[in-house]
Amino acid sequence: MAVDEISTVRSERIWTYAMVAVAAVMLVAIVHAGIAQHFGTPSNSIETVDPNTLHLAGEFVSENLGTRVGLDGKITTRVVTTQFAFAPDCVVVPQHMQVTLRAASPDVLHGLMIMGTNVNTMVVPGYVSQVHTVFDKTGEMLMPCHEFCGLGHSQMVARVRVVPLEDFQPDEQGRVSCADR
Amino acid sequence: MERPKPDETADRAFTVKVTAGVIAIAVAIWAVTFLVLPVIDVRNAGIDSWTAICRAIGIGSPSPPSSPSAPTVPVSKVAWTDLTMDLLAAGDSTRGEAMAQETCQACHIPNGLTADPETIPSITGLSPRALFKQLRDMRDGQRPSDVMSPMIADMTDRQFADVVAYYGSLPMRNSHLRNLKEPTAAAMTLATKGDTARALPACDSCHAATAGGPLEAPTLTGQYPVYVAAQLKAYAGASRNNDIYGRMRGVAQKLTDSEIADLAAYYNAPQ
Ligand SMILES: [Cu+2]
After folding, report:
1. Chain B contacts of A48, Cβ < 8 Å?
2. 20 to 30 A from B204, CA-CA: which of A20, B7, B90, B267?
3. Interface of B with A in 33-92 (CB under 8 A)
4. Contact A31 B195 (CB under 8 A)
5. What ipTM describes this predicted complex?
6. pLDDT (tens digit, 9 = 90+) per residue, B18-67?
7. Does any domain span residue A46?
8. What is the spatial distance between Cα A179 and Cα A158, in angstroms, rounded to a whole number?
9. Are B191 and B181 in contact (CB under 8 A)?
10. Interatomic CA distance for residues B157 and B162, integer angstroms
11. Nearest residue to B219 (alpha-carbon basis) of B145, B137, B134, B148
12. Regarding beta strands A75-82 and A85-87, do their DSSP bridges make them parallel or antiparallel, or are they unpaired?
């Protein structure tokens, strides 16, 4: 069957519209995820941090990890992803509250996700990964590493304990940890 | 078949439209990722919109002031910075050998044995990084040792780099065949596969010579069983706590006493 110029142009045009539509749908999905669900794009709020000296000083020293209620009442959970464990390996968060999760890696690329929530990010050495989320259901959830980080990767998992607000009792420094209960 | 002449005006109009479309989409995406999303995402970050936009573009990105933290007492002052790496790379094993002959060999014998297998670890063939980290921690107080700490109190980092270059270049200890017990299946599994139910990575994922785990993890092959068991118990009880981010304490706390004994025997067996 011969293909004439007109039908070629018509099919080209149809495909052009189709591709533009696909790109538009993806763009809308990204914007929706970013605005309504707080999925950060990788370029979003880039913050750098020196991975080699993470444990010596600054935000990600051992003493500063875990969940903490700041003086302004904001809840921040900090974790370090390292070969092959999360530090701390269990965190407590309150239900129905805005929680900011901040993570950094001292060694290689890791990732973290919590099933059923919008928490899903890579943790790239040299950068701080940040996710805002609200936990709807109480109970204990698993937070596995989801970027291959070495031979112990498949055992790298932390627990996230979501408790009702009345059971979320910060100590005088604003901390709440799994060991307290 | 005769091809019809292309319609040049229609072609040009099409090109213009498509180019404009592509540019419009690119601009929209840039606007969303560099302007809209960062500004929306700062709600909880405690930074202003301008900083957020700069960070998204990748310029000027100091961490926001973190909430007041407890005074930091690092469990180890060793950091794998370029400075440390260069220092280790410049380690001179000839100078190191002289130093070892003078101070170390009475206890850590170059053939891999030690003066007392019950208390003194074999250090030959371990990676210079692992040895350097322990020397620093023992000197600086993060791993206090009655025997080692006073002895190396006046040594410099450069001397450490020399002596670890020397010990690192020696062959690893050969296990005494007559001491050997058959490794148990449980130890073998823990060492090579780990236990996912307990979130326990295989020991070898960090401790095998080429595993690619933490830089400071020493090779355990051929280490004396009494020493291995003692260290595991010390980590479990946190009387030894110089492991950065508790990577070894977290592991040791999950082991039972019999697993510790089995693992110590396993690493004493020839691999
Ligand atoms: Cu990982």
Report:
1. 61, 63
2. B90
3. 33-34, 36-38, 40-47, 52, 55-58, 61, 63-64, 66-77, 79-81
4. no
5. 0.77
6. 899 889 989 988 888 788 877 776 655 566 778 778 777 777 655 554 55
7. no
8. 14
9. no
10. 9
11. B134
12. antiparallel
pLDDT at A43: 43
Structure letter (DSSP) for residue B35 = I
Record the tokens describing residue A15, joined without a space. Answer: 């495909």
Sequence-ordered alpha helix ranges (H) in chain B: 8-30, 37-41, 49-57, 82-89, 93-99, 128-140, 148-151, 157-169, 185-192, 204-207, 225-236, 247-252, 257-268
What are the φ and ψ backbone dihedral angles of A93, each rounded to 5 degrees? Answer: -135, 150
Q: Note whether A78 and A21 are same-domain residues.
A: no
Average pLDDT over residues B70-80: 82
Q: Given an 8 Å threshold on Cβ–Cβ distance, is A52 in contact with B79?
A: yes
Total domains present in chain A: 2
Phi, psi angles (nearest 5°) of residue A86: -95, 145
Q: What is the pLDDT of residues A71-95, one digit of tens each?
A: 888 899 999 999 999 999 999 999 9
Q: How far is CA A38 from CA A13, B39, B171, in A?
A: 36, 12, 54
Residue A90 belongs to a domain with what CATH number?
Answer: 2.60.40.420
Q: Which domain holds residue A168?
A: 51-180
CB < 8 Å from A in window 82-141 of B: none
For A46, which of B58, B80, B244 is closest by C-beta distance? B58
Residue A151 three-state SS: coil
Chain B residues within 8 A of A85 when measuring between CB atoms: 199, 201, 245-247, 250
